[in-house]
Structure formats: C-alpha cells, structure tokens
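Minimal example, chain plus zinc ion.
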Amino acid sequence: MSEASGQMTAQGPAGARLRVAVEAPRHTSIAVLLDYTCEHALAPGTLVRVPLGAREVAGVVWESAPSAALGRDDPAREAAPKDLRAVRAVLDAMPALDARWRAMIDFAASYYQRGLGELALAVLPPQLRQIDNGQLARRIKSATSAAAAELGQAVARPVALNADQAAALEAFFAEAGRPALLHGVTGSGKTEVYLHAAARALAQGGQVLVLVPEINLTPQLEARFAERFPQHLLASLHSALTPAQRLRHWLLAHLGRAQLVLGTRLAVFASMPRLALIVVDEEHDASFKQQEGARYSARDLAVWRAQQLGIPVLLGSATPSLETWQRVQQGRYRRLVLGSRIGQGELPRVRMVDMRQLLRAGAGQRAAQGAPSGAADDAPLAPPLLDAVRARLERGEQSLLLLNRRGYAPVLHCPACGWKSGCPHCSAWRVFHKLDRTLRCHHCGLAERVPRACPECGNLDITPMGRGTEKLVEQLGAVLPGARIARIDADTTRAAGELVRQLAAVHEGEVDVLVGTQILAKGHDFRRVTLVAAVNPDGALFSADFRAPERLFALLMQAAGRAGRDAAHAARSEMWIQTTVPAHPLYAALAAHDYEAFARAQLDERAAAGLPPFTHLALVRAEARDAAPAMAFLHAAAAQLATLAVPGVRVYPPVPPAMARLADVERVQMLLESASRPALHKALSQWLPGLNALRAAHKGVIRWAVDVDPQAI
Ligand code: ADP
Ligand code: ZN
Ligand code: ZN
C-alpha cells in the first residue's frame, strides 16, 4: 500500500473523503475534482474506479483529507459525506503516482487548458482503466520477473569522447540549473554525448528519460542504448506498442525498475520516481507537439519537468527550433557546440539547379499538347542532376531523391470540362495512385477506383497533373535502365516491419536510387549515399504557414546529413536543390551550412511580423457540419472575451483554416495573440470555462478546442 494511507484516519461513519480527478470530457471537468467517499483513506495518486452518472470511470485520487478541510475553498462542495457516492474499486497493487507527477499533470492541464482527469487518464496506459487490482498485481509480478531475466552480462566499451564532446559534457553537468542546447550537425557525435550523460546519471542510481520525435527513430537509438547499457533495463514507450506492452513498460518505469525510458512525445508523462536526466533528441521536430486532444508540447514539458525536479535537461539538434534558439540568445538556455563531424565526414557540397530554364524550355512543348502550364514534371530530373545520379550509378554509389508527395499525381484533371479529382468530404484533391488504380484522399482516407472517364463529361482522356513519388520512380526507370530503383514512403511501409526491411535492403547495397518522402530524411545512417536531392522543395518558401521555412531548412539540413557519412566518399558528396528561386536566402544559408545566418534572418522576420517566439499564440477552433454555426459560436465567444477586458491580448476574427473542410466537417478558428504569456493565460483561464455554456446555445457545433502554442495557424 501507499505512502500516506497508513497515516490517515477514516472520517466519520462513511470513511474517508476523497477528491478524484476523473476521466470525463472537458466540459464536465475543467480543472474540477469530484468528491467521493471510501471506507479507508487513500494516498493521493492512487488509481480508483468511481461512479459518474450511470457509468463507472477511472480516476486518480488528487486529495485525501478530512472532509472539512476539503470543502473549505468551495461551499458548493460541502455535501455531507452521506450524500457522496463511494469509490467502487481501488488499484493499490501499484504505488501511488507521486506528488511531482501530479504537479506536472496539474501544470500541463492548466497550461494547455484541459481537464485534469481527462489529461491524467489520457497519458496513463489505457489498460490501467480496464483491469482490476488482482490483474494489476499479476501484471506487475510478470513484468518484474521477466525484466530481471532480460538483463545482459557483457559490458560494451564506451567510446572515448573527443575534445568538443568532452567539453560539452563537462559544461552540461557543471550547471544543471539551466536547460542546455546541444548544437551539432548530423554525425557530430550528439548521441555519444547523450550516452555519456546517461552513464553518469545511471551510475548515481538515477533514471534517464530520452525523448525522440518518431517511432521510426526509436529502434536505432534503442539499440545504441541497449548495447551500451546491457546491465540496465530499458523500457520504450510509443504508440506502436500493444496495450499490454505499453502497460508493462510503463509499470517498469513507474516501479523504478527500468532505469532507461526511451520514447516519443507521450513518454514525457512517464512516471519515473528517480528521474535524474532528460534528453530530447531532435528537439526542433514538430512531432513533439501533440495535435489532437490535449495539444501539449513534449519538448516544453520536458524542460518544465526538469526544472521542477532540479535535474539537467539536454536538447539536441542540428537546427534548433527558433523558440529554443531565442532562449539561447536571451541566456535562458545554454548552448553547447559540437563543431564538426566525427572522423573525416564532411558536409556535402550544396548545388542549386535553376529550374526556370527547364520550365521555359518545356512550356512551349506542353502548350502544344494542351497540358496545363507551370509544371516542371515532364522530365524526371534536370539534366545536370540526372547526370550526377548516373555518375553515382557508374561508381556503385547510392542516390537519395526526396519528393514530399506520395502517390502518382496529386490530382487528376479533365482537359475537356475542367473537372478535378476533389474529395467530396474535404477541401483537398484526391491523389491518383497508379499502382492500385485508386483515387485517395490523404486527409479522410476515402479511396475509390479511378474512373474510366470524366465523371462530369464522359471524356475518356483524364490526365494526371503534377508528380508524386510513384511517377518519379516510373520516370527514372525509363531513363536509368538497369538501375535498381526503390521507393520508400508511407504507402510502401504501411505493413509492420516494412520500413526496417526496406532500409536494410538499402544498407545492403541492393538499391541504387532511393526515392522517398521526408520519412527518409531523418536519422537513418546511409553510408553509401553520396548524393541527396530535393526534387521540388520550393512550396514551403511560399506557404501561408509561417513555420514552413523553418521546417524546410531543418529537413534539408537533415537530408544533407544523410550524404557523406562515410569518410571514403565524403569528398564527392553532394546535396542538390531543384528550385525556381536559387538565390533565396534560405538556400544560401543552406549552401553555407550556416544555421545561425538562417536563424537570424528568420527571427528578424518573425519580430517584424509579430510572430512567435516574439508573441504568444492560442487558437480556438470550432467544428460543425456547416461553417455558419461554428462561425457564430466563435463570434459570440469573442464578444464574451471582450467583456473580460484582459489587457494586452489581441483577438482576430474567426476564419476558416487552409483545410476548411475535413471529412464532412467544417472548421473555423480564431487566433489570440499576446506579447505577454501571463496575460494570454489569464484570458484563456477566465474565458474558456464559460464557453461550454455558450456552445449549448449554438446548436450544430460538434466540438471546440483550444490549442495553446499552436504549430500551424
Ligand atoms: P549524431 O548523434 O550527432 O548524429 P553520433 O553520436 O551518432 O552523431 O556520431 C556519429 C558517428 O560517430 C557514430 O557512428 C558514432 O559511433 C561515432 N562517434 C561519435 N563520437 C565518437 C568519438 N568520440 N570517437 C569515435 N567515434 C565517435
Ligand atoms: Zn470532363
Ligand atoms: Zn477527404
């Protein structure tokens, strides 16, 4: 049983009185705790099952105290114990969630404006909501006994750090109070610094939490940690685990048995009683922001959690987020630099291909064929780039071609009547997939067979417009006879284990030319790749999303890092960019491998435009079958906010986002902006609780939500 239960005495005949954070939708429970009774007192942090209306739901005991003390702050809660319902079940086979874990949930719920119980239960393994105490006890027993058997014997010899790495490590531990950015290009030895930092924390009996942006990256990093620390138990936490695995790994962390926890954003909420170090790898990655439900930033919470515990936190990146970079400039974070790649590995030379010439040359030809103008997709690649790929083929080296669009063509089009393959449910085109002859919406998933003729006019000659990875592979096949061309994207890697299998084939040298989406840019260590090309990256330069350039720069830097990792080939490694704006400052900074120049220019632009990190944003979104009620609701909400008159918060009128319609639901959003974070939070916390009542008056609004620090606006 748990810490405090022995010290509590039951209150009156009904026993103890508890305040429980219950799993319930936000509108019933924003920051609200419900009161229950129990025969005996329970420690805060104990998992329970309680009645709620006609249902029984899971909850976490948040407070357990004499009834008078609990009711004091809220007269409405002064119900006599006899009026309260009793807890139905207590899961005390596991230790209670400690005060620091609960404080983190408290903070995250209020910062991101979610219900306490909603968040607490959402971040716990789902199986904890279903099993009873006896089952839990058995799970704990089997998890811990299996874990003991897993530990290896051999001790892997650690790599000796180079001077930069050693200096970074010393500086990191010398001042644990301030978060540290470990800034170094791909291959500069960041992971090795993580391993050494972890070794130190483990040696002192602490637990280490390592966060990575994507599941794809966990097996590689996991292997490196497991190999280096065979005598320590490692638990991974990510969404690809089965519910049983997730519970097992979570329990091992919670019990303190797993000293290493490695996982994606969700893992930031792992209960780790002896947490001593947090590492966030690729801290700039947008996947650290949860985009559904509680829209939290795992990176920001990791920093909060480290500061709460007084433990060091290391944020690693080659291209830090501008938020992190600004904090470094302000001195709030420290910057530790790894100056160069390990060994002889040099960064590839960056070459621009000016696509304007190619476009002009192709335009006349296309006009003659009646094809839409403006697409440079008739040739597989610009001639000089194609020659460079051929040169790799002759030398037995590999090329990596990035095109961030899967399928054959992003849209089908009827030249006779102008029909396009729109999705009937979304404001998006349906993508033509030639291999399985489907038109697929990448947003709502609608897939249908490609029509034989135009659905509007019956024309048999409907044509694909633009180009995706399938088409690029087809085109390359025609001009590179005999080359082994492979495609890796979300379509080819849907089945479990496929990505790993296909990457292994690349590593084995079974592939000459690899075509893929950004799935390829991250993390993978391709030794034989000496050419990386971005086939069509310009879109992000002109995007309405103010973060698009930042993401593009990070992606291209990371992609460049795929080339030249093998010292033997480094000298002739190249990164090619096909662009219509070769003189763009973003590409100039990329060519110079100059993150700082890029960051400086971007921060200047953001400051001038009043965008983050210079201002703080929150989005309120509403969804309905038709836009009108959602719009009316947000207008009424804005009027309510105006009556609160919180100074320093600017409210923009509600507008539809770029993707206005998704799966037959219309979306509308309203932006709040403030130079002061406290002012923004004051406004949100005073305003949002009232919105549920308001929503009731706007029939048709399906749901609404707030997104604090949104990634895209
Ligand atoms: P990053 O995480 O920055 O991409 P890694 O830590 O993976 O860099 O290092 C790149 C490569 O260099 C890896 O193969 C790693 O084992 C090796 N390496 C890292 N540090 C050292 C070192 N001090 N001595 C020798 N090899 C190293
Ligand atoms: Zn038609
Ligand atoms: Zn759709």
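The chain has five domains: 16-134, 159-340, 351-406+468-607, 409-466, 616-708. The radius of gyration is 28 Å.
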